[in-house]
Amino acid sequence: MANGLSRMIRWSAPISTIKALAGDRRGVIAIMFALMLPIMIGFIGLGVEVGYWFQHRRNLQTAADAAALAGAYANIFSESISTAAIADATRNSYSSSTDTISATSVTTSTAGNTYTADQYAVEVTMTRTVQLMFAKVLISNDVTINAVAVAVAVPGGDEACVLALNTTAQRAVSVTGTATVSMEGCEVASNSIASNSINVSNNATLEADCVSTVGDVSGTVTLGTCSSENISVPAIDDPYDTLAVPTYSGCDYPSTGSGYTASDGETLTMRTGESYTVICGGLTVSSGDTVSLDPGIYIVDKGTFKVTGGGTLTGTGVTIILTSSTASNYADVSVTGGGTITLTAPTSGTYSGILLFQDTAATYSASDSFDFSGDSNAELTGVIYVPKNDVNFTGGNELDDNGCLKIVARTVSFSGNADMENDCGAYGITPIYVSYVASLVE
Fold first, then answer.
1. What value, to the nearest 5°, has the Cα angle with vertex 398 and ends 397 and 402?
2. Comparing C-alpha atoms, which of 129, 108, 121, 131 is closest to residue 76?
3. Alpha-carbon distances, residue 47 vs 84, 139, 147, 258, 362 (angstroms)
4. Is 105:95 a contact under the CB 8 Å cutoff?
5. Tens of pLDDT, residue by residue, the chain (442 residues)
6. CA–CA dist 209, 21 (Å, integer)
7. What residues have CB less than 8 Å from 362, skipping those under 6 apart?
8. How far is CA 136 from the centre of its chain?
9. SS3 sequence, the chain?
């Protein structure tokens, strides 16, 4: 027994067996796999979590976009930008427990982006902290996701045919007497804060798609597309305030500059080699005379552009600019005493769609208003732009158009009938938008 045990103890594996064990790498691979397994799990987890982060990033950007749009609309109505932004962000996955939000008017933003000149631009910045799962093997800190959105509210939507620019006037838009004023395809708007900013009184009738005013409406308006008046809304920007009077010199009608009375059957023409002609001291068409205007720009330097006493004035493709070379006694328009004026604006060029334009440098004067009165008849196509003075249609006159007429003035009044439409596509006229449309720009 002892000898057998001795033989067992002294036994040793054959040399071939030892060499085989030395070449067996299965154990090494197992050890290497065990060492690398946490790293592999970390990378797999990181891949999964990157997709998870992108999902959070999309959700956060959606919330920021919604918040910026809501903030821009709130900015229009001078409401709390932050409150509106947070409310819409909350409806789009924002949570105060994991997210932060900052919403501010771009004009006060420190981001330095390019939209600071936009009156109603709003910038929203959001952050979200995302806790790690598998990726904690590789990254010790939680991940912070950021999103930025900028929205700008610009004029858009419905259009107006009449806009009163004065911000405080009583009856800035007035329809009185027995007048019937019809606005087809457009609205009536006033920037006045007065309680009778838009006034319809006596037996007058005002028909329009809608009315919009910073103040309120007095009287009854027959509405078309809207169910009620839009009151206490933001003021509308002057759509034509960039119009300028061209550089001019001398006088063509008459050469002395003392005012010109046209003769029956006369046609006024453009200055030789120019697209304009200058009428100094005003123009008078009267006593049943018929006068026509060749296409072009007529610059009236002081005085009154007058059609009266049954006179008739016609012109196609014309722009009449009322100004003053001395910064006083700015020219105005008067159609009275049975006068008839039939004018159509040009469809191209600098003054495309502009029919009557009083210099924006003019100051208010009751004597410088544009008056259509005394059973006159005005058939006008284009824009009447009188930013500093009043436009009055009174005394039984009839105002009509050929499908396109817009009036922008300090105030506008009607006591005679008026029929206006908004089919102005052929004239390249800048629309008078009465509402705002918010859109994302970043």
1. 150
2. 121
3. 37, 13, 21, 86, 69
4. no
5. 445 444 444 545 555 555 554 555 556 666 666 666 666 655 555 566 666 677 878 888 999 999 999 998 888 888 899 999 999 999 998 888 888 999 888 765 445 556 655 667 889 999 988 776 655 555 566 778 899 999 888 777 789 999 999 999 999 999 998 889 998 889 999 999 999 999 999 889 999 999 999 999 999 999 998 889 999 988 998 999 999 999 999 999 998 878 999 999 999 999 999 999 999 999 999 988 999 999 999 999 999 999 998 899 999 999 999 999 999 999 999 998 888 999 999 999 999 999 999 999 999 998 889 998 877 888 999 999 999 999 998 877 778 777 899 999 999 999 888 888 888 989 999 999 988 888 888 7
6. 96
7. 322, 323, 324, 330, 368, 387, 388, 389
8. 50
9. CHHHHHHHHCCCCCHHHHHHHHHCCHHHHHHHHHHHHHHHHHHHHHHHHHHHHHHHHHHHHHHHHHHHHHHHHHHHCCCCHHHHHHHHHHCCCCCCCCEEEEEEEHHHCCCCCCCCCCCCCEEEEEEEEECCCHHHHCCCCCEEEEEEEEEEEEEEEEEEEEEECCCCCCCCEEECCCCEEEEECCEEEECCCCCCCEEECCCCEEEECCEEECCCEECCCEECCCCCCEECCCCCCCCCCCCCCCCCCCCCECCCCCCEECCCCCEECCCCCCCEEEEEEEEEECCCCEEEECCEEEEEEEEEEEECCCCEEEEECEEEEEECCCCCCCCEEEECCCCEEEEECCCCCCCCCEEEEECCCCCCCHHHCEEECCCCEEEEEEEEEECCCCEEECCCCEEECCCEEEEEECCEEECCEEEEEECCHHHCCCCCEEEEEEEECC
Burial (CB count within 10 angstroms: exposed 0-12, middle 13-18, buried 19+), residue 22 = exposed
Q: Which pair of structure tokens corresponds to residue 125? A: 């910045």
The single-letter code of the amino acid at 219 is G
Query: What six digits make up the tokens of 295?
Result: 């296409």
What are the φ/ψ torsions at residue 149 (nearest 5 degrees)? -140, 140
